[in-house]
Amino acid sequence: MSKAVVRGICALLLVLTVAVRFQADRTRQTMMSEFDAGRAIADVLRSHGLQLGENPVKPPKMASIVVYFQRPECDRASLVFPYYINAEAEPLLAHVTVPGFERHFYYMDSSWREQRRVSMFFEWLKYAALDLVGASPYVPVKTAIVLADPPNCRPAEIIDWRVLWEKNRPRNPVNAGSGAASEAARS
Amino acid sequence: MTGGTFLSEISSSMGSPATVASGSIGRRELLLWIVGCLFANQALLLLDVASFDAFAASLLTQNDIYWLACAITLYRLSLSDPILRADRLDCGLALALGALILFSSLLPYRFGIGLLATLVATYMLMLDHGDRNLKAAGAVLLAVSTQLVWGPIFFQLFTPELLKADAALVGSALMALRPDVVWSGTTFFAPDGHAVWLIAGCSSFNNVSSAVLACVAVTMLRRNEWVRGDIKTIVIASVVMILINVLRICLLVWSIDSRQFWHDGAGAQILAIAQTLVVLAIAWWGAAPSRLKP
């Protein structure tokens, strides 16, 4: 093959890969900015008829991302907050709860009783790979959630948190992309 | 070695009579296309090209050491053997890599390009045909790919442990300097009421990763072979980076005013520039040609 042809192929490949990547990156950015974990959590709780509580802590403090809600069968409020899967959720959890709270960590279609970063990373990897061929039902953002229920609270209804990451979850584009949670999702 | 010498070295090398058989592409040029394609794709992930303002803002947040390493990879590659033709293996690799880069374009994550960079670097290191410049380019590219993919994966797996190690260093320093600061796990409580909680971005691992990249890149800029003392340089640079990061976190814990200046104010830029200059100075000193034994 002549030098000119090889150079032409190389130049074409360079332009093509950059163009495809540019488009793919824009699509991803749009997807990420539409994922507002804090709002999604509130939507899921409301859809289960649960009453949201007021968070006295305001941004930019970390604890402002915590969403409080009241289960009718419990005497104290439960809480849930989103966090970047690689971040340590424990310090914030310890700050906003007291000993005895029951914790559950959720990420896409898996849940754990304690923070499992490696398992979550592989979960993300699985859905990021599936997303390449359009086969992932979830938005592959690196945002997990942790739920903490007060002691002696036996929830009557189990909330399906998977819906949080589902692609077909109805979203409110007006408010999309705001808040610290979506910042974490972008990382 | 001065900049003028570099330029003359490049121009003499690039301008030499084409000894590659006419009609066929040289190995050096083919590898330059591949590496250029990798860097162009990577640049798109590191720079925000949504608007001019966003682009300008993203330029300010770039890791200068990373881009310096990319430039040195291309520099060393451009000095590699101009005579050698691209053989079937080279062409096959170029073809496979072209397809993989195109496929990875659909994957908007850094590790796709990082993995391919590792592949190309390994190829350059293993099939250098005795070409030291090619080997040097491969070493820098391997360090770049480590910064892009292997370092972040390692960090992802060991974040809490690394943060605890950082907290232990900071806590030990503060026990001597500020015994009134309460240290609990990875959180520090100052007496004025503010608390600092170490998160991934605070880890000195990021600085160590940049220090290793700087040492590899600058060493391969000044010469194209390794000496035993280079490991010592990398260790010194890494330790200095850890100490600067410990100092930085101590300043953040010191008081609210100190935190605002060193984290959100001009102090953040001062520290970033100081860190870059210090690590480059250590790398430059460590890579002095005089350290080569005859």
Give me some keywords for this one.
heterodimer; A: 187 residues; six-stranded antiparallel sheet; 6 strands; elongated; disordered C terminus; B: 294 residues; mainly alpha; disordered N terminus
> How many strands, what sense, and barrel or not for the largest sheet of chain B?
3 strands, antiparallel
Query: What separation lies between the terminal Cα atoms of chain A?
Result: 44 Å
Number of strands of chain A: 6
Total E-strand runs of chain B: 3
Instruction: State the low-pLDDT regions of chain A, or none.
Output: 172-187
**Biggest sheet, spatial arrangement of strands of chain A:** 1-2-3-6-4-5
Strand content of chain B: under 5%
Shape of chain B: elongated
- The residue fraction in helices of chain A comes out at 25-40%
Using only C-alpha atoms, the radius of gyration of chain A works out to 20 Å
Mean pLDDT of chain A: 83
Which structural class is indicated by helix and strand composition of chain A? alpha+beta
* Count of helical regions of chain A: 5
Strand order of the largest sheet of chain B: 1-2-3
Helical residues, percent of chain B? over 70%
